[in-house]
C-alpha cells in the first residue's frame, strides 16, 4: 500500500472514531486520534496478518497497551476486514463485542486484553519469548502511551525485553504529551524519554507520529535491528485532525456531542479531499 | 511419624515430569527459584526457564503473553508477592482473558516462619477465590502436590496453586486421586466433619484418631480444590454429621471456611466452627511455635470439635 493510501486510511480511521464515539456517547477520542497514522501504518503496511484467520499462529501480534485508545484499534480492525464496519456502532454497549477496552475473548483481531495501564509491554514480551522458543519469525508490536510511562511495570518490562534480547519486539510510544490531569510534564515528568529507553538498552527512533513516510521508514529500521528491542517514539498531537480537540487534555475521555461530531466529521472530510 | 516433604519440593519435582512430557511447559520465577524449587527445571530446561528478576508484575504479565502464544507458563514466587504485588496483573492480564497461566505460589501461610508477618500470605486464597475464571488449589502433601501440578497443566485456564515452605507429613500414596473440583473424603464418620486443606489435613487426621478414643466419630474431608468447590460432597458429608469444623492455614475471613460456610448457609445450614488465623497477621518465629501460638494444631481442632458438638446438641 502506498504512503498516500495510508494517509487516507488514517483519515478514515479518524472519521470512524468520531462516528462511533458519537453513537456510544462514551470513550476516549484524544489518544485514539493521535494514533491514527501509527495504526494505519502497522495494520496496512507493516504487520503480517490475515483477517480471514485472526488466530493464525505465524501472524504478527499487536498489543494496545494504552487500551483506552480502543476506538482506533477497532476502526483499524474493521477497515482491515476482521468484522463488519457496522459493528463499530456497538462500541461500549451492553451485549456487543466492542468493549470499552480491548478484549481478546470478544473481538477478532485483538491479540491481548488490555486497558489497565502498564501491562501491555509485559504481554508483548511473553509473546515474543514464545515466538523465539518456537523458532517463529513473527514480530510483536506494542503501542504505549506517554502517561503510561509513570507505571513501574513498563520499566520492569523494558528491562526484560532487553535482557532477553527481544529484537522481535517493537514498541511505539504515542507521545502526545497529555494525560487526564494535564500535560505529562506537569503530572509526572518522564523526560528525557529517549535517553531513558536508551539507558534500558533499547534501540530508539524518534519520529513525527503523523508523518506516514517517517513511520514507514522507522518500522523498516526497527525490523533491521538485531539483538535488542526497538522503540519508536512518535511525537503526536492529542486529538489530531479535529481542530477543537487538538492538544486539549479535556478530550482525553469525553465523547463528542452530535453537533461536535458533525463538525469534526466535516473537518475530516475536508482533509480527506486534500489527500486526493 | 510419617516421612515429610514440603509441597514446594514436590512442585519442583512435578515440574521436571512436566518438562519431559510437554515442550510447551515453561517456568518463570522472580529471583526465588532456589526457594520455590523451580531451579532444577531451570537447570534441566534452561531455554524454557525465565528468571524475571524481582519484578512480579512483569512476571505475571510476561506469563500472560506466553500463554497467549500457546505456552503453558508456571509463574512462581512467594504467595505474598504473587497475589499481593501482582494482584491486578493476575486479574486483568490473566483471569479476565482466561489465559492459560499457572500461578504456582510457595511460602504461603505463617509456616514461612522466621521471615515474619510481612512475608506470610494469609489472605491469598480469599483474594484468588474472588476472581472469576480462577481455579484455586491447596494441596495437603507431596503426592497431592504432584497430582495438583499435573492436573493444573492439563486444565486449560488460570490456576492458583498454594504451597508451603515447611516439610509436611506424606499422607497419600500413588493410589490417591486428586481431581479439580472434587473433595476427598479421607475418613467417614458420623458425629462431626473436619473439612481442611493444606497442612491442616494431617492434623485433622490425627485429631480424628484422638477423638475416636473419646467416642466421637469424625469425618475428614480434604478440600484441596477450593474453587471450584465440591459442593455435592460437602453437603453430603454435612448432612451425615450435622456439624462441621473447617481448618486452614489462612485467615478465617474469605478462605476455605468461608467457602464452605457459603455453601452450607445456602444449601444446608449446619453448625460450624472455623479454625484458622483469627483475622490477625503472623510474626517471626519457628513454624511449629507459630502454629501453636495461632491455634493451628491438633489440640485446637479437638477443641473446635467439642465446641461445634455443643452447638449441634444445643
Automatic annotation (TrEMBL), chain A:
Keywords: Metal-binding, Thiamine pyrophosphate, Transferase. Its cofactor is thiamine diphosphate. Residues 7-256 form the Transketolase N-terminal domain. InterPro entries: THDP-binding, Transketolase_CS, Transketolase_N. Gene3D superfamilies: 3.40.50.970. The keyword Cell membrane does not apply. It holds the Pfam family Transketolase_N. CDD domains: TPP_TK. The keyword Transcription does not apply. GO terms for molecular function: metal ion binding; transferase activity. Belongs to the transketolase family. This is Transketolase. It comes from Desulfosporosinus fructosivorans.
Automatic annotation (TrEMBL), chain B:
InterPro entries: PDH/Transketolase (IPR051157), THDP-binding (IPR029061), Transketo_C/PFOR_II (IPR009014), Transketolase-like_Pyr-bd (IPR005475), Transketolase_C (IPR033248). Residues 5-170 form the Transketolase-like pyrimidine-binding domain. Gene3D superfamilies: 3.40.50.920, 3.40.50.970. Keywords: Thiamine pyrophosphate. The keyword Glycoprotein does not apply. Its cofactor is thiamine diphosphate. CDD domains: TPP_PYR_DXS_TK_like. SMART domains: Transket_pyr. It holds the Pfam family Transketolase_C. PANTHER family: PYRUVATE DEHYDROGENASE E1 COMPONENT, TRANSKETOLASE-LIKE PYRIMIDINE-BINDING DOMAIN-CONTAINING PROTEIN. Belongs to the transketolase family. This is Transketolase family protein. It comes from Desulfosporosinus fructosivorans.
Amino acid at each position: 500500500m502506498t504512503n498516500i493510501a495510508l494517509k487516507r486510511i488514517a483519515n478514515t480511521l479518524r472519521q470512524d472514531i468520531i462516528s462511533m464515539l458519537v453513537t456510544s456517547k462514551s470513550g476516549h477520542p484524544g489518544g485514539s486520534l493521535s494514533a491514527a497514522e501509527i495504526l494505519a501504518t502497522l495494520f496496512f503496511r507493516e504487520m503480517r496478518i490475515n483477517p480471514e484467520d485472526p488466530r493464525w499462529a505465524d501472524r504478527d501480534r499487536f498489543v494496545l497497551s494504552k487500551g483506552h485508545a480502543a476506538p482506533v484499534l477497532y476502526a483499524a480492525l474493521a477497515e482491515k476486514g476482521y468484522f463488519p464496519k457496522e459493528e463499530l456502532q456497538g462500541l461500549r454497549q451492553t451485549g456487543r463485542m466492542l468493549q470499552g477496552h480491548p478484549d481478546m475473548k470478544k473481538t477478532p483481531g485483538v491479540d491481548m486484553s488490555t486497558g489497565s495501564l502498564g501491562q501491555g509491554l509485559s504481554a508483548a514480551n511473553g509473546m515474543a519469548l514464545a515466538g523465539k522458543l518456537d523458532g517463529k519469525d513473527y514480530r510483536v508490536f506494542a503501542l504505549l502511551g506517554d502517561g503510561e510511562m509513570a507505571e513501574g511495570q513498563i520499566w520492569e518490562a523494558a528491562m526484560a525485553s532487553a535482557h532477553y534480547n527481544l529484537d522481535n519486539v517493537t514498541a511505539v510510544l504515542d507521545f502526545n504529551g497529555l494525560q487526564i490531569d494535564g500535560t505529562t510534564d506537569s503530572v509526572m515528568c518522564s523526560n528525557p524519554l529517549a535517553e531513558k529507553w536508551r539507558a534500558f538498552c533499547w534501540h530508539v527512533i524518534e519520529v513525527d507520529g503523523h508523518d506516514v513516510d517517517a513511520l514507514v521508514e522507522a518500522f523498516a529500521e526497527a525490523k533491521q535491528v538485531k539483538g535488542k528491542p526497538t522503540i519508536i517514539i512518535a511525537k503526536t498531537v492529542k486529538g489530531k485532525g479535529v481542530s477543537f480537540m487538538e492538544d486539549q487534555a479535556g478530550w482525553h475521555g469525553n465523547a463528542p456531542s452530535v453537533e461536535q461530531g458533525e463538525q469534526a466529521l466535516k473537518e475530516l472530510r475536508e482533509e480527506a479531499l486534500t489527500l486526493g | 511419624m510419617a516421612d515429610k516433604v514440603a509441597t514446594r519440593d514436590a512442585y519442583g519435582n512435578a515440574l521436571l515430569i512436566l518438562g519431559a512430557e510437554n515442550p510447551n511447559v515453561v517456568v518463570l520465577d522472580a529471583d526465588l527459584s532456589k526457594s520455590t524449587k523451580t531451579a532444577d527445571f531451570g537447570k534441566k530446561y534452561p531455554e524454557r526457564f525465565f528468571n524475571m528478576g524481582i519484578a512480579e508484575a512483569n512476571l505475571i504479565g510476561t506469563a500472560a503473553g506466553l500463554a497467549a502464544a500457546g505456552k503453558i507458563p508456571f509463574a512462581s514466587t512467594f504467595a505474598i508477592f504473587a497475589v499481593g504485588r501482582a494482584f491486578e496483573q493476575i486479574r486483568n492480564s490473566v483471569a479476565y482473558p482466561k489465559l492459560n497461566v499457572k500461578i504456582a505460589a510457595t511460602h504461603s501461610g505463617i509456616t514461612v516462619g522466621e521471615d515474619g508477618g510481612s512475608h506470610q500470605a494469609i489472605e491469598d486464597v480469599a483474594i484468588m477465590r474472588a476472581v472469576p475464571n480462577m481455579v484455586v488449589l491447596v494441596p495437603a502433601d507431596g503426592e497431592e502436590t504432584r497430582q495438583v501440578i499435573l492436573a493444573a497443566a492439563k486444565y486449560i485456564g488460570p490456576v492458583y496453586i498454594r504451597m508451603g515452605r515447611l516439610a509436611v507429613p506424606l499422607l497419600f500414596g500413588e493410589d490417591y486421586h486428586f481431581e479439580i473440583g472434587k473433595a476427598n473424603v479421607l475418613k467417614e464418620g458420623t458425629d462431626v466433619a473436619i473439612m481442611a486443606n493444606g497442612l491442616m489435613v494431617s492434623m485433622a487426621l490425627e485429631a480424628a484418631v484422638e477423638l475416636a478414643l473419646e467416642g466421637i466419630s469424625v469425618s475428614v474431608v480434604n478440600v484441596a480444590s477450593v474453587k471450584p468447590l465440591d459442593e455435592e460432597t460437602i453437603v453430603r458429608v454435612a448432612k451425615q454429621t450435622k456439624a462441621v469444623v473447617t481448618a486452614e492455614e489462612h485467615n478465617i475471613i474469605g478462605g476455605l471456611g468461608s467457602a464452605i460456610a457459603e455453601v452450607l448457609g445456602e444449601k444446608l445450614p449446619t453448625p460450624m466452627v472455623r479454625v484458622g488465623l483469627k483475622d490477625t497477621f503472623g510474626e517471626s518465629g519457628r513454624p511449629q511455635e507459630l502454629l501453636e501460638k495461632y491455634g493451628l494444631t491438633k489440640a485446637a481442632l479437638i477443641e473446635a470439635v467439642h465446641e461445634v458438638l455443643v452447638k449441634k446438641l444445643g
